[in-house]
Amino acid sequence: QSAxxxxxxxxxxxxxxxxxxxxGTSSDVGGYNYVSWYQQHPGKAPKLMxxxxxxxxxxxxxxxxxxxxxxxxxxxxxxxxAEDEADYYCGSYTSSSTYVFGTGTKVTxx
Amino acid sequence: xxxLQESGPGLVKPSETLSLTCTVSGGSISNYYWSWIRQPPGxxxxxxxxxxxxxxxxxxxxxxxxxxxxxxxxxxxxxxKLSSVTAAxxxxxxxxRNWGASGNPTRVDYWGRGTLVTVSS
Lengths: 110, 121
Hints:
Distance between the termini of chain A: 35 Å
Shape of chain B: globular
Distance between the termini of chain B: 39 Å
Helix content of chain B: under 10%
Number of helices of chain B: 0
Radius of gyration of chain A: 13 Å
Order of helices and strands of chain A: EEEEEEEEE
Structural class of chain B: mainly beta
Strand content of chain A: 35-45%
Oligomer: heterodimer
Number of strands of chain A: 9
Order of helices and strands of chain B: EEEEEEEEEEE
Largest interface: A-B, 25 and 27 residues
Strand content of chain B: over 45%
Largest sheet of chain A: 6 strands, mixed
Helix content of chain A: under 10%
Structural class of chain A: mainly beta
Number of helices of chain A: 0
């Protein structure tokens, strides 16, 4: 299975909105509404931010939102804050009942 | 609150078998899927495989021939064995819980802190 494709980096100024894309295939992203997004700060374990394309776990800020169109999912961070600077990974359940992560995106707050 | 803790050797020789154990606390290991995920230094996440508490497993196709994940429900633990390791498999290894309302392991909702395993002679 191939890793899902994400842009290597995205940046924005405080208060702005940014969007990170995650492109897969009809066997993963496009085939199911089971895309998740994870935030990882340096030296820390990843944290679940979005699941089932657009659902937020309890305690996650509503500045984080997710969507999907075809084989591409997206994570939008609105009202960008310094604490949002981190690596972000998408992940998807697959038709083989396996799991696949994206290549990762480094978000920089200018 | 579910907590996961990885344990095992931090140094493994090339061609040998990497062995790690994950202890789950704050909840039962039953009725969930449990994964191993790794991250080489400075690189992205790679899913290794998962086990259901009933012992059914599924592995990353690229690692399938070398991976074994097992579970011990009496100890609330699950384990990873990866054989014939190379230096390229130096990574932080995470244990984690997979879950989904559909009954499939559609998201990773709890993670251990991770343990660095270095493959070197």
